[in-house]
Specification:
The complex is a heterotrimer. By secondary structure, chain A is mostly beta strands. In chain A, about 10% of the residues lie in helices and about 30% in strands. Chain A has one domain: Alpha-Beta Plaits (2-Layer Sandwich). Chain A has a three-stranded antiparallel β-sheet with strand order 1-2-5. The chains are: A mainly beta, B alpha/beta, C alpha/beta. Strand 10 of chain B pairs parallel with strand 2 of chain C, so a sheet runs across the interface.
Chain lengths: ~100, ~400, ~290
């Protein structure tokens, strides 16, 4: 029987993790990168976002959690407060301007 | 590698075993001791505290033996050679970190100047009743090395030997002294530094980025990198893989724990050390170690005078136990008499390895003082009498 | 712009990413503490090769295994004693001991007070989640009165510890308390403490979502974060005796309470031996360099 080696599962480049780029008319002030497979759906990023840019996605990740997605990309300033609150290193913010 | 001259007090001395042991530790390159006062071992750390500021190193008196036994492991991972010194009750408290040192493969030396037990027992009087505890005291399967000196000179020599074993096999090594050896004054000859051969730590030789904390060499012993080298080591007390990552599976447990045990078992033939006296034609072999071996020597002499063909097998390294040697002798001799200052510990090993081919008797002693030679002689006589049966040992 | 991009990459570089997601439950505050610690390391520009993290056993103690820096996962309660050895044997290391309340102050309480008394140069971070998480939510020496744990099924009636007060009384040079909600202050506090020479202590109130909060019906992780937000009063420089948090009705006093100078262990040792032994004293500088 082939042993399933859980340790070798590599979460360093799972789905997501790239900076989200949205096509809009106006220039974006900031953006976030969400590493979906690391998210455990605690909702801190959504609650503590000063401009309430984020919301829970309807999608599930591999562990069955709703991960966040950016609802109002034009509002995001990339302040990275979501990144500071995230206990799971699943979200990072960056300024674009 | 030769010893560092700074720590070697070359010359002839008249000193007791505790002080001699301290000089041995210094000569071996030990530059860190975490200790806690306990009779009859305190003289070792007292001398170290006096000597170390003039040699260059650290002595710290910790809050208890639990702390002493782990602070030294911190020092080892920071790159020093380190030891701790204690006696019975303190040794019991240190068990947690003997297991830790075995699991994390931290080379360090635990000196135990044995005294009578259980519990507080006989603080100022000798015993050899921690021998099984040294091997089996901490939970789980692991192997250690235990060395037993019988004179102040050997306290010096074996402190160096203990460090050499620790560095060679990355195990905690027990230096099992006793109150008698510790407080006995004799001539101690400390050689010059260039006559002292030391085993260097098995430092990692690969590039920092490629280093894995627990990747073993062919002899099953991994190489070591110290904290601050940029190797990003992960020292793990949970069952771990080669990277040091915890893996809680039966497979990882089997792989790790069998390696911890086998790195000593497979190399045991290089570790065994014993002395033989008049063993070639012996019909009764006295097995002994530590201070008791000196009494046993006299008992063998007395037996020879009486015409009994007695011999002495004196164990220097008690753990790993010289199984092959006992097996070999069991085929040739009629009986083993195990003389030890406890109510039957190493005799169990002798009995196991004799496989019933020779009688095994105990010349035990509850501790507090050494045997009289006549007490051992009595058991030797009993051993050759046709009425005594195999495997029975009386107190 | 490039700076924040670098921050994400730096964070990833300081994590053993192949071990993520970590063991902590959804919403657990320990992840926030780890996050703040790594951000503080980056912001304070500490040489990460010279940082060693010593941990005991427990949920919080798992922290060392996720950081891509020299990490030690030792025995229960002994993180501070181990860190003492590391620091004294290599004074160039920046030693950090991180542990939970049970680990550091119950079984490791003796090591805690003595490390503070000796003023060993290390940063000590205690994540206080009011119970034993790893073993399933038993009462701890920090459990607030009338809160339940599995070993205090009718509620705890014991007086909990006031950790900043203990650290202060034992001689710590830096004492602060924050909650998992105060991420910015926490990060700045860790940055400050990393620069400090001597025994620095930071207590962090954290939410144990699946055990302490669930058992006591205090809500989810988010509710506890709001509780921390609403009930905290920042009192920098306050007397540590005021920092008691005996029951859930008390205000949570947070802030930096102590920031003072005292010679640390090594300084005292070297200074004193130099004075009494004069030129016979050989100062210990650190282990010999090895090839790597």
């Amino acid at each position: 029987m082939k042993e399933k080696n859980l340790e070798d599962q590599n979460f360093s480049s799972p789905r997501g993790g790239e900076w989200i780029e949205t096509q809009t008319q106006q220039k974006l002030k900031g953006t976030v990168a969400i590493i979906r497979e690391r998210c455990k759906g605690c909702g801190y990023c959504i609650e503590f976002c000063p401009l309430k840019c984020l919301e829970f996605s309807k999608e599930f990740n591999g562990k069955g959690y709703h991960y966040p997605h950016i609802k109002f990309p034009e509002k995001c300033t990339g302040c990275d407060l979501c990144g500071m609150y995230c206990p799971d290193f699943a979200i990072f913010g960056k300024k674009l301007l | 590698m030769k010893a560092d001259t700074k720590g070697v007090l070359t010359g002839l001395h008249f000193m007791d075993g505790d002080h001699s042991c301290c000089e041995g530790l210094l000569a071996a390159g030990c530059r860190f001791i975490g200790g806690y006062p306990i009779t009859p071992s305190t003289e070792v750390v007292e001398r170290f505290a006096e000597r170390i500021p003039k040699v260059g190193g650290v002595f710290i008196q910790m809050e208890d033996e639990i702390a002493s036994s782990i602070v030294i492991q911190g020092a080892v991972w920071a790159g020093l050679k380190a030891a701790t010194v204690t006696s019975g009750p303190g040794f019991s408290l240190m068990m947690e970190h003997i297991g830790l040192a075995a699991m994390t493969e931290t080379p360090c030396v635990f000196v135990n100047v044995q005294r009578g037990g259980p519990s507080t027992g006989l603080p100022t009087l000798p015993a050899q009743s921690d021998m099984m505890q040294a091997k089996w005291g901490s939970h789980g399967d692991y192997e250690i090395i235990a060395v037993s000196p019988n004179s102040p000179q050997e306290c010096f020599d074996f402190a160096i030997l203990a460090f050499n074993y620790a560095e060679q096999y990355r195990v905690p090594v027990m230096l099992m002294m006793d109150e008698c050896v510790g407080h006995m004054y004799e001539r101690v000859k400390i050689p010059s530094a260039d006559e002292i051969e030391l085993v260097e730590r098995r430092w990692a030789t690969c590039a920092a980025g490629e280093y894995l904390t627990y990747k073993p060499d062919a002899d099953l012993v991994p190489r070591m990198a110290k904290a601050g080298d940029g190797c990003r080591i992960l020292v793990e007390s949970l069952t771990h893989d080669e990277r040091g990552y915890p893996v809680i599976t039966p497979q990882a447990q089997k792989k790790l724990v069998s390696r911890l045990v086998n790195k000593i078992k497979n190399n045991a033939h290089k570790i065994y050390k014993y002395e033989e006296y008049k063993i070639e034609d012996a019909e009764v072999i006295v097995v002994s170690y530590g201070i008791t071996s000196r009494v046993a020597f006299k008992a063998v002499e007395l037996a020879r005078q009486k015409g009994i063909k007695a011999g002495l097998l004196r164990l220097i390294v008690v753990w790993p136990f010289p199984e092959k040697k006992i097996e070999e002798l069991a085929a040739k001799t009629k009986a083993f008499v195990t003389a030890e200052m406890n109510l039957g510990q190493i005799v169990l090993e002798v009995e196991r390895c004799a496989h019933g081919k020779a009688k095994t008797l105990l010349a035990g002693h509850a501790g507090g003082t050494v045997h009289r030679p006549e007490e051992i002689l009595e058991v030797i006589e009993k051993a050759i009498s046709p009425n005594s049966s195999v495997g029975i040992w009386e107190l | 712009m490039t700076q924040t991009l670098e921050l994400k990459d730096k964070m990833e570089g300081l994590l053993r990413t192949n071990r993520l997601p970590h063991v902590w439950c959804s919403g657990c505050g320990i992840g926030i503490v780890l996050n703040s610690f790594l951000r503080a390391l980056i912001a304070s520009e500490t040489d990460e090769n010279k940082v060693a993290v010593s941990c005991g056993i427990g949920c919080t103690a798992r922290i060392s295994g996720y950081m891509n820096i020299d990490g030690f996962h030792m025995t229960h309660g002994r993180a501070l004693a181990f860190a003492t050895g590391l620091k004294l044997a290599n004074p160039a290391l920046k030693t950090v001991a991180i542990g939970g309340d049970g680990d550091m102050i119950a079984i490791g309480g003796n090591h805690f007070i003595h490390a503070a008394r000796r003023n060993i140069d290390m940063l000590v971070i205690c994540v206080n989640n009011f119970n034993y998480g790893m073993t399933g939510g038993q009462a701890a020496p920090t459990t607030t009165k009338e809160s339940c744990g599995t070993t205090a099924p009718y509620g705890s009636f014991e007086n909990p510890f006031n950790l900043p007060f203990i650290a202060d009384a034992c001689g710590a040079v830096y004492v602060a308390r924050w909650t998992a909600f105060h991420v910015r202050q926490l990060q700045l506090s860790i940055q400050e403490a990393l620069k400090k020479k001597g025994f620095s202590f930071i207590e962090i109130f954290s939410q144990c979502t699946e055990l302490f909060l669930r058992k006591n019906k205090y809500g989810a992780g988010l509710d506890e974060m709001k509780f921390f937000k609403q009930n905290s009063v920042i009192k920098n420089g306050a007397d540590t005796r005021e920092a008691e948090f005996n029951s859930r009705n008390d205000k949570i006093v947070v802030g930096k309470f102590v920031d003072r100078e005292r010679p640390d262990f090594k300084e005292s040792m070297d200074g004193y031996f130099g004075k009494v032994l004069k030129d016979k004293f050989i100062r210990y500088e650190g282990p010999l360099q090895t090839k790597i």
